[in-house]
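Hi R.,

As promised, here are both runs. First protein below:
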Amino acid sequence: MTIRSLHGKFVFGVCRFCGIENGKEIYPTWFGLTSQFPDGYVSSRLREFSAFYSNRLSYAGVAELLRRVCGDSVLSGAGIREIVAGKASEINRAIGKEVADLLSDRKPSVFPVINAEVAVYDRKTEETLIFDDGIQVKKQKTTRKKAADRPSENSLL
């Protein structure tokens, strides 16, 4: 088994428990027998380093940076993408759970009531907050025309 860390990779072998089971040779690992490293054999510092630079470089660029820093190719671009996507998925689940808890009936609502009809000219209205995206578009188009489908400026004349 190969362990990957920020300082390179090294082989961690266990031969004491090797044997034959159902006609096949088995080579259990010490970490498998002791239930260590359930998330894989990549150190947490290497994951953090990869995720940090993935925000600034391409995955292949991060893999090359790791090769230069560690002196060996410890992770590929696809491996780095898996690390980043896994962490993003974990964060997404946590945020989704938090939002679901906020919107559930168990807790009182912390969001203000949204009024669809606004009486702008009513003198009795104390204050009105209007949230806008700044683009002034009511909704996005369902499909976009390609440049070849749009009429050119010359054809309009």
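And here is the second one, sequence first, then its structure tokens:
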Amino acid sequence: MSFDAFAEFRMDGHNVLITGGAQNIGAGIAKTLSGAGAKVMIADLNSDMAAETAAAIARETGNDCRGMACDVTDLDQINAVVSATADAFGGISTLVNNVGWGGRQPDPSAIPEEEFINSYKLNTISAYRMSMACLPYLEKAENGSITNSGSFSSAVPAYDILPYGTAKAALNQMMVSLAHMLNKRVRVNSILIGTVMTAGYGDAGISPEMQEKLAHPDNLTGRPGRPEDIANAMLYLCSPAAGWVSGQTINVHGGGGVVRLFGS
């Protein structure tokens, strides 16, 4: 029998819950983990899109993939999707806190305090609540893990998306602290994501002209990211291949060094 160098990257027997998985980066992650053998539940604010994406992934990979509505800022909905996932799959081994969003506001004096609060609720507190709701199941899993979709804007000056970058920076702190607090029980890691061209940029109010500028970034690879770039890194961190990795941040941003994401 020949040696299979990719065996540890398989996700057979893993039950995944991913937030914000109906489109863009989240859908890419869901597809990759499903393709590696996992059962996947997509939790998304858009229930119809979650169901459509899940059905398409299931057809393509041949593995169980489902979609369900969930507003991750609502604790009751978090508990409902966690219970539904555990009931459908017989447990949860893998949580991907992928959901996140932030609009552009280049004038700091024009940012209302409520925007900071709402960004923190969506990008940080939701990940904590989801992690705690899944924890009883993750602790029982053989390779229990939590992986967060972080942002490069949390590690550099986020000139144009200050509330978002600030909330994602808090997520980084929470990740490493939870990794230590859940010592030997559940692995916790994050990916700092750079510029990945998706429809989400238009939703955030970024003009087509600015999107074209972002499509030619000043990074070491000379191209923006693709959803599969993030999905491949996510597969590593979620799989048994990363069984000795916890409390870590992986930078997946093309070797980016640009500190002003959009410019003036």
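A quick note on the second one: The longest helix spans residues 113-138. Let me know what you think.

Best,
J.
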